[in-house]
Amino acid sequence: MKYIFLDESGELGFKERSSKYFIITLLSCDEGEIYTLRRIIKKVREKLIKKELKKYPEIKGNNSTDKIRIEVLERFTKTNAEVFVIILEKSKVYEYLKDKKNKLYNYISNLILNECSFDTSSVCLVVDKSKSNRSLRDDFDNYIKKTMNEKNHLNKFIIKHENSYNDGCLQVLDFVSWAIFRNYEFKDPRFIEIIKVKIVMKKEVFQKLSGP
Fold first, then answer.
1. Does this model's pTM top 0.90?
2. Average pLDDT for residues 46-51, to the nearest whole number?
3. What gap in Å lies between CA 71 and CA 67, rounded to an integer?
4. SS3 99
C-alpha cells in the first residue's frame, strides 16, 4: 500500500496580517518506510531535547530550535520518501475564491494529489485531524474520494484523519512543510536546501495572466 501524508503551512486568510503564501505539502512513501519515518522524531527527542521538554507529546517546526530542525530534516533525507508541493501566492487568488476557503483548500489538495503517481492499487491518505471540524472533514473526504475515483484506477482509497501528536510521519512532514514555507514567506532558504533532493514536484497555482 502507498501512504500519502498531507500537511500545510501558512493559512488561507486574506487580511493585511495574513501570510503571503499558503503551502500544501505531501509526503509519499511505501508502507515499508513508515517505521523509519516514525523513528525520526523518536531519535531526535532522545538525542537533542532537554529532559524538561520530553513530557510534551509533539515537537513542531515552528517552535523548535534550528538544531532540532536540521536534525529532523537531515534524517528525513536518508529515507525513500518523496515530497510534492503546491505553492499558493495568495495575492494571485481570484476574488471570487477568497470567501470559499474550504472549497479552495479542497481544490488545492486535489491538485497536488493528482500530481502523485500511484504504482499500487491501494492508497491511504493521512491528514492531521486537528485542522478542521467533523463536517469540514466529511466535505473534504467526499470531494477527494470522488475526484480520485474518477481519475485513478484504485481498488482501495482510504482517508484517515489522525492527531499529529500520535503520528510521527505527520510530525516529520510538519518540519518539511515548515522548511518550504520558510523559504517562500521569509526568503530563508537554509532549511529547504537540506530537503530539496526529496522534492520531486513543486507547482505554483493561480498565477494571474500578465496584461496586454
1. yes
2. 74
3. 6
4. coil
Could you tell me which of 150, 140, 146 has the C-alpha nearest to residue 106?
A: 140
Least confident of 1-15, 56-70, 72-86: 56-70
Under a CB-based contact definition with an 8 Å cutoff, are residues 192 and 77 in contact?
no
Residue 209 has pLDDT above 70, yes or no: no
Q: Say what the pLDDT of residue 207 is.
A: 60
Compute the distance between CA of residue 145 and CA of residue 148 in angstroms, rounded to an integer. Answer: 5
What residue type is 210 in one-letter code? S
For 202, the enclosing helix (H) or strand (E) is strand 199-205
Q: Which CATH topology does 2-204 take?
A: Nucleotidyltransferase; domain 5 (3.30.420)
Q: Give CA angle at 101 (115, 83), nearest 5°.
A: 25
Residue 98's SS3 state is coil
Residue 78 corresponds to which amino acid? Answer: K
